[in-house]
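=== RUN LOG ===
request id: a7f3
mode: sequence -> structure
chains: 1
length: 171
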Amino acid sequence: FFSSRRRHTRYPLVTGVQTCALPICAMATMNDARKSTAEFFERHWYSKDGPAPAWSERWNMSQPIPNCDGAGCYLVVEEAGDHEHVLYVGKASQKNGNGSLAIRLLRHVIKPVNRSGPPYKIQTIKEYGPKGWPENVALYTLAFGQDTRYLAPALESWLISKMDGLRNQTT
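=== RESULT ===
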């Protein structure tokens, strides 16, 4: 008598004809990000700090970076029909004063277009392009003040834990 446990696994071994649907990962949307952010601030924001920060308007990389000088979080989104799918959640927590959102984005997410001549200043760049992302991505940023910048890593972790389908590596 020989018994195989393979047939009892969750996903069938595909040998020719697929008999059931494989799981599909649902993509988080910008609305999901806003709801999760509101939930985070309900738990971790104190009224003495003023109103809770809000996500910037959609940034299509054609004007100065919103909230460029401070610590905060950013979302890389991709347009998909009438939704915007969140691809990535990132943060700039400004440790030692050199981690602004603009610096973080320029190092890992975006690149200046037409970057010829002397070293550029963030305020003078008028057009950017995605660095290793699809061409139709856009960004949202959320800035924290100097006294609340410690919340940037917490918000990033919160959003990653609440949303599915991100390119963030969680190990």
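=== NOTES ===
The CA atoms of residues 114 and 127 lie 8 Å apart.
The mean pLDDT is 75.
=== END ===
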